[in-house]
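Q: Could you fold this chain for me?
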Amino acid sequence: MCQCPYGYYYTTSRCQEGKVFPGQLTLKIPYTDSMANENALKYKELYKNVTDFFNTTFKNKTDYGETIIVNIKQSSAKSKIQNKAETSGTTVTVINMFEVTTKLKASDVASLIREAMKGNSYFSNDSYQELPQCAIYGCDAATTNCVENDGVKCECKSGLSKKNKEEKTCSDCNNACSEENHMHCVTGKNSAPVCQCLPNFKNKDGNCVECDVGYSGVNCSNNSLLILIIVAVLCGALILGLTAGLIFTSVRANKRQKNPEKSHLLKEDYSDNRETPGRPSAIKPAANDKIFPTIQTRNASQVNQGFEISNPYEMGTPTMRLPERDYDDYEYEMSSKIDGFRLQRRY
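A: Sure. Below is the predicted structure, expressed as structure tokens.
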């Protein structure tokens, strides 16, 4: 079936622009699915009865053009006896077209239709209702807003656009949705285009800004990087704490240990390891437990009993004589014992 676009009606040779008066009325016949099929006999019967009714109603209006059936559906009403919904007829949505220059208004057209329905057995009395053009124009509710201003048109919602002005849906985003603004157009709910921020950006006051540190992904919803940073910081702090504790423990342990140099002075021999074989070191406190060496005679049996040696450094042959003393007589004196001589300080 060849049909004219919205706002036009078919004449003998062409589609002519006209004025639109949409409305809805109820038929007293029961609804069947075949009424929605334009090739079915039921539809053709309904179409003839409806168009004949309007041709008769507007026969005196020379600017009347055509009646177009838009939709056929089942109507329902509540039964007065059982107070429940039941099938009560068929609802038809129509468009009555008049010439653009007509002086009729929507209220005038509705009054003529209601007057003609009185006493008509095919239509329910007073069932006709005026409809706004947006109710039948078919604008996409998800992407457009229907506007009636000297006609009807579908205006795109904010951020959307359409390729053809005559389209009733907006299938694209506007020019502001670009990579320069860190945006791109995606398909959202109901297959409607949605302008979103690029990954790793989020919407802030209508602008797409970079995600905060630790966040990424679409609308900065992924925080795995933030968790990784927190774990790394905690591990670093733990390692630093363990290192500081180890250093503190080592320093404290070293303070508790004895000074090895002092132990060396007390225990080790002061000899320079250049002793003459067969002769002990002159200074060997650790081995002899004495600061000064014990002086002994060559043979104690050779000393005459009862004879007291007054000066052991001057007696004997030169080869047997002790080294000369390096102290004064008044400071030290000799003391004899069985195992030899010992110097004692005078007080």
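A (continued): Helices lie at 41-57, 106-117, 134-137, 224-256, 260-267, 285-288.
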